[in-house]
Structure formats: C-alpha cells, structure tokens
Amino acid sequence: MTDSSMAEAMATTRTTASAAAGGCRWGCGLLVAAAVLVVLGGAEALSLDLYDEKCPAAEAAVTAAVRQAMAKDRTVAAGLLRMHFHDCFVRVTAILAGLCSVPFRLRRPVLLDSTGNVTAEKDGPPNVSLHAFFVIDNAKAAVEALCPGVVSCADILALAARDAVVLSGGPSWVVPVGRRDGRVSLVSETSTLPGPRASFDQLKQAFHDRGLSTKDLVVLSGGHTLGFAHCSSFQDRIHPSAAGGMADPSLSPSFAASLRRACPANNTARGAGAGLDATSAAFDNTYYRMLQAGRGLLGSDEALLTHPKTRALVAMYAASQEAFFRAFAKSMLRMGGLNGGDEVRANCRRVN
Q: Among the listed ranges 23-27, 74-78, 107-111, which one has the minimum average pLDDT value?
C-alpha cells in the first residue's frame, strides 16, 4: 500500500465553517473524519467510537485541561504538539507485514519518568526542553475520575495535540482512539530523532523509516508555526565559525541581523532565542512564507528548499493555508495512527 493510498484509506476531508468542538473561536478550520480504520499487520485497529459508551466525556475532559493550560501559557500548544511528534518518532521496533515499510511503534515512551537505574527518553538531549507534561497529568487525572482504567495516556496525548492545534487557530480532525501505552523508555533511543541541523537526506530517511512520506515531512515541518527555539539550535547559522566560516548565506541579511541581536556570539542567557515564525502562538501558514523569504529559523527548515519536490510543496502551502490545513490533518492521522502498546497506565509517568 502506498503512502497516498493509506492516507485515503484512513481519512476523508471536508471544509467546514467551524471546528467540531468549538466553532470559530477554535479557528474555522478543516474537520478531518477518519473514514476507514484498517488493521495494520498484527496491531489492533483504532476506533472512532471506542469511548462512546465506556467514557463519553473523555474528550471534553482533555480539551478542558488543554484550554485551561493555554489560557495561562500560550507556549503550551507548541509543547504538546512537539511532545506528540517526539513520542511518535521513537521506539521503532519492527516492520509490519504487508504494509510496505511502515514500522511498528510502541506508544507513549516520552511520558515516562526516569527511574533509579533507567534514564528515560524525556531526559535525553533532544527532549530536555520538552514541556507541558503537567497538562497530560491534569487531563489524565480528570479522565481517571470519570472512568478509571479506560483511556490510555497515548490517546490523551493524541487528543491534547489535536486540541492544541485547534485552540491556536488551526485545523481540527477526528482522533481515532484505542492506543495502549508502552512500558519501555530508553534515553539511548532519542538519538533517532531528527535534529535542528538535519539535512534533507537525513530528514527524508528519518520520515521514510517511520512509514511517512516526503510530503509528510514538509507538512509536519509546518508544525514549526508554533513555538520557540533556543539560540543553540541556530547559533551556527548566524555567526561566523571560529575556523573562519561565514554565516549561512541563505538567511535574509535583515533576519540574520535580528537573530544576532537576540543571540549575540557571547550569549549567556539561558532563555534567549527566537520564535519559529513571526506568529509563533498562532497555527497558520506563516512558517512557509517566511521560509520562502529567507527567514526560516532552523537549518532543518532551510533543508526543505534544497530539493525540487519539497520546494514546490513549500510554495503550495505558502500560497494556500487551506491546503496546508487539510494536509496537516491527514499527516497527523498518519503519524499517530499506529497502535502497539501493552497497557492503560493509571499514571502517565510510570508503568502500572
């Protein structure tokens, strides 16, 4: 099955005048309804109605936790979306028979805390800046009060990431549920996460290893419309190296100058950095327009302009926010669509 046919099998899209769970106050986006849920190899299929009888108020409880947190801190949205991405990209353990090269992912290792003799993924170098774990804790506590032992942390994180996008003005989609939580979280496995300096070939390989297409790479990179990067993630692009190298010529000179003011060569401020795009608390297509203008913050962003196919996709999404929203919902379904954990945790930070 190809990437495109799997996407069509899993979801259909329609433009809607209001997002499903909150009208235009959530951003009049695109509602993506999963039309067909397939059994992927030995993994259990996800469901659209699993909690309708077992825990009908679960989604509302998660949304309330996300909304409350975002009302106090607008960086929560970026934190939840990045957490979901990092969680889905680790723990590749097997190839599912009969589904091209789609890998099998055990779910939610990033939520587990380190223990006395095991350092967990959340304490690995790529994850030390992850935040908003408290939102998942609060949502889990609310759901457990309604229906103990029913809703996994995996599903709560998938729902929370969707809500974070919608509450920031982005598209909505129906999240299939029924994931189970994994029991293994190893810091060594964070080395597989693509970094801020990754080349196009490195990014492409990382996505393809997880059953995601080059189009998914460009679409999900658009999640950088939310959030902030510390100076260390792009310092090498804005300052000449000690060996005499020049700053990155692909950057707009005025943009590079503004970044040097925020991140001087002798910077010691731990919180210094820059927004990933000019509207870093709003989910929109500004990321792509800035990328075209030489204002992409990370080297991995700029990498999308180094290949004709990805450059054309960047241009398409820069020109049409609607096309980006539709594609983003589909790619999020694809990224979060595999199941394969072991349990429903009572506490998202530790195994049962």
A: 23-27
Asked whether the predicted pLDDT for residue 140 surpasses 50, the reply is: yes
Phi, psi at 243, each rounded to 5°: -85, 5
Residue in the block written with tokens 């599903």: 155
Task: Quote the CA–CA distance of 300 and 197 in Å, as a whole number.
Answer: 5
* Nearest-angstrom CA–CA distance, 52 and 56: 5
CA distance 331 to 7: 8
The pLDDT value recorded for residue 25 is: 30
Give φ, ψ of 103 to 5 degrees: -85, 165
Q: Is 225 annotated as a binding residue?
A: yes
Residue 8 is labelled as binding a ligand: no
Catalytic residue list contains 307: no
Question: What does pTM read for this prediction?
Answer: 0.83
Q: Is 84 assigned to a binding site? A: no
| Catalytic hit among 84, 86, 239, 307 | 86
Nearest Cα neighbor of 292 from 274, 314, 309, 321 is: 314
Alpha helices in 46-111 (DSSP H): 51-54, 58-72, 76-88
Q: Is 48 helix (H, G, I), strand (E, B) or coil?
A: coil
Report whether 172 contacts 21 (CB < 8 A).
Answer: yes
Q: Are 14 and 322 in contact (CB under 8 A)?
A: no
Instruction: Determine whether the annotation assigns residue 224 to a binding site.
Output: yes
Residue 102 has pLDDT above 70, yes or no: no
Predicted confidence (pLDDT) per residue in 283-308, tens digit: 999 999 999 999 999 999 999 999 99
Residue 277 marked in a binding site: yes
Q: Which two tokens stand for residue 159?
A: 């729902």
Percent of the chain with pLDDT over 90: 56
Question: Phi and psi for 125 in degrees, rounded to 5?
Answer: -50, -45
